[in-house]
Amino acid sequence: MDTLLLCGGPLEEAFALTVLEKLQPDCIIGIDRGLNFCYQYRIHPDYILGDFDSIDKKILDYYEHQSEIPVKRYKPEKDATDTRIGLELAIKLGSTRVFLLGATGGRLDHYMGNLQSLTAARREGVEAWILDSRNALTVLDKPTVISREEQFGTYISFLAMSDQVEGLTLTGFKYPLHEYTMTSFDGIGVSNEIQEKTAKVEFSKGLLLMVMSKD
Fold first, then answer.
1. How many angstroms separate the CA atoms of 132 and 14, rounded?
2. Per-residue pLDDT of the chain (215 residues; tens, 9 = 90+)
3. Which residue pairs, CB below 8 angstroms and at least 24 apart, start in 37-42?
4. Cβ neighbours, 10 Å, residue 68
5. What is the pTM of this model?
6. In angstroms, rounded to a whole number, what is the distance separating the alpha carbons of residues 13 and 70?
């Protein structure tokens, strides 16, 4: 099941509409200020949640009167961000892939928390992506093959999300690696490019952040 989270950060409307059309998600979760986007484009999410400290009251009232949509309210003083709570709900619902829009830009502390959420999802066996018009980010826990034709953007970077990523081997890239041990302080994986039709990312242990980007 594919689930889309419309989060409370800056949301690029044209890009978000393109993602919705292409993805056709099975489930949509509107999170706090992400409801503004839902309201503007008459999107009816399957679930709504947040502390609702940054949303117009008339918009919240509109959705609360849609009796078929569950609304989960949280106090602003809580132990997790609205986005993390939304991601945990998506996992609980049985999502196999989760896509986050409105999770970059704005406050850096929220963005860093959203990166951690990618790792939390992967530890639960769920593939999670943060998307905006220039970047696509996910955390890998096993080897993968990437098609240059299907790659998002031109550049691709790899950063350790665990203390170490062991045996990292990059094949088909402009800057290959072989059996490299990458640490969380390592910048060697930044700004690579795929040169072959397909490229392989292999490693034996660890969690690896993959960032596909375009200028």
1. 11
2. 999 999 988 889 999 999 999 999 999 999 988 999 999 999 999 999 988 877 888 888 888 887 688 888 777 666 678 899 999 999 999 999 999 999 997 778 888 888 999 999 999 999 999 999 999 999 999 999 999 998 998 999 999 999 999 999 999 999 999 999 999 899 999 999 999 999 999 999 999 999 999 98
3. 37/6, 37/11, 37/13, 37/102, 38/6, 38/63, 39/63, 40/13, 41/13, 41/17
4. 6
5. 0.91
6. 24
